Automatic annotation (TrEMBL):
Gene3D superfamilies attached to this UniProt entry: 3.40.630.30
Keywords, alphabetical: Acyltransferase, Transferase
Residue ranges of the TM segments: none
Name of the protein described by the UniProt record: GNAT family N-acetyltransferase
Positions of the N-acetyltransferase domain: 21-178
InterPro entries documented for this protein: Acyl_CoA_acyltransferase, GNAT_dom, N-acetyltransferase
Pfam families named among the record's database cross-references: Acetyltransf_3
Organism: Paenibacillus illinoisensis
This enzyme's EC code(s): 2.3.-.-
SUPFAM superfamilies in alphabetical order: Acyl-CoA N-acyltransferases (Nat)
Sample GO molecular function, one term: acyltransferase activity
Length: 185
């Protein structure tokens, strides 16, 4: 159910909040938001070997996120600024090794929200949610080898480097990290 926040901006139903952010779930109406995020080649150059995503690929990604939420109660949840209602990006989880209760952590922000601490804020909330609400055993994460910002983010969040492994969508070896509950600060 949509609501109006204290500034009069229409906001979305949320299930998780931080000081500045609200977490929602993707819906069919979010195609423009998905296109704004995954249609930006400055964002997708870090996650796609082509350096961009077509409209069909964006549509498939959105459908995949919605299906994952229905089936597994996780996705890379869309993020919104609490005061303005502006879309910031997404942060969340997807299955990695489900039988061992290990999920992959990820965050993608729109370019105009880079460098403002949103990724760290959202990441801390998702990590807490994963261990406190979903009873995960560990989180996995990786990043494009040339993305130093993502590397620093994962280190700030407390992830520990394990090894480089091939990441098919980007077509490169990616540094890979793990986070266990004892890493929570």
């Amino acid at each position: 159910m949509d609501q109006t926040n204290k500034t009069g901006v229409k906001s979305r139903e949320t299930f998780l909040e931080t000081e500045r952010l609200q977490f929602s779930t993707w819906s069919e109406e979010d195609r423009p938001l998905a296109s704004a995020l995954w249609g930006d080649p400055e964002v997708t150059k870090w996650i796609s070997s082509k350096g961009f995503m077509s409209e069909d690929e964006i549509e498939a990604r959105l459908a995949q996120e919605m299906e994952r939420q229905r089936e597994m109660k996780v996705q890379y949840w869309p993020l919104f600024d609490k005061e303005t209602g502006v879309f910031v990006g997404c942060c969340g989880l997807r299955p990695y090794e489900t039988e061992e209760k290990i999920y992959e952590f990820g965050v993608h922000l729109t370019r105009d929200h880079w460098g403002k601490g949103y990724a760290l804020e959202a990441g801390k909330a998702v990590i807490r949610y994963a261990f406190e609400q979903l009873d995960v055993q560990a989180l996995f994460a990786g990043h494009h080898p040339e993305n130093g910002v993502s590397k620093r983010l994962l280190q700030k969040l407390g992830f520990t480097y394990k090894k480089d492994e091939f990441y098919e969508p980007a077509g490169k070896m990616h540094p890979s990290y793990i986070f266990v509950e004892s890493d929570m600060k």
